[in-house]
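URGENT: need a sanity check before tomorrow's submission.

F., can you look over the NADPH:quinone reductase record below? I want to be sure the sequence and structure line up before it goes out.
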Amino acid sequence: MAKAIRIHQIGGPEVLRLEDAEVGEPGPGQARVRHSHIAVNFIDIYFRTGQYPLPLPSGLGSDAVGVVEAVGPGVTEVKPGDRVGYLLGPQGAYADVRVMPAAVLIPLPDAVSDATASTLMMKGMTAQYLFRQVFPLKGGETILYHAAAGGVGLIACQWARALGVRMIGTVSSDEKAAVARANGCAEVIVTTREDIAKRVRELTDGKGVPVVYDSVGKDTLAASLDSLQPRGTLVSNGTSSGPVVIDTMQLAVKGSLYVTRPAMVHYATPRPHMLAMAKELFDLVAAGKIRSEPSRTYPLADAAEAHRAIESRRTTGATVLLP
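Structure tokens as predicted:
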């Protein structure tokens, strides 16, 4: 009998329950995947708390890596024995084995281990679409990136360095500042003692930056807007501190600013596009320009503890569950 984490109500980490799960044979267009590593992302907390609605009861988790055990009729994307990862598809990655749509599975190259891939599927692909699609960076820019020591942040630090981009990152502690710098962040602002917008202006000779990538949300909104150049862009790619509410008149007052709230599904589909994104990411890993391993691992049964650690802001890098 397979094991899976399920939620029957929204709430705190205590609503995560390890249960037996029936996993049958894959149907047409499906594949059964046995997981080796399961990523924990902040978006999982949004689903658990009801910020993003889910029909209940439900599984949880959006990305994992493992090996294909079986495929259903008509599947040509993968075959049994293939190592794969995924970041799209239905919730339910917090499980040791599951049936998935084959079209969302991404074959993993030999040069990328399962452990590394588990930190890259959602987080690395997020860095790809933020830096290469939402506001395409060409090199030479100075940017502001919030939560630079987080799971996506550490990959973003390295990607910025590889592109020749000067990244100003925000963190909440000196310990996290050291981690961000070690991964390529050019300048680090410790938010517990520094004024973000003031420091950005100092670092840019008063000009501000053309783009801010902000996954924090409510607590950093004002500083993000005040850090932008005229006609600059706020990429609001998360709301870990709470929802963002924007007075559009302020966008005009602060310099005719742009705001976008991107979603992965609109950048990683159709499948050929998703595979091209993954290839760019994996090529950087193979070239040694991005290095990523889980910072913390927990048994699948301890998913609630993993959520508590992330919510407390104690973590840096990627947190992974092991079935």
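My own read: The longest strand covers residues 30-40. The two ends are 13 Å apart (CA to CA). If you see anything odd, call me.
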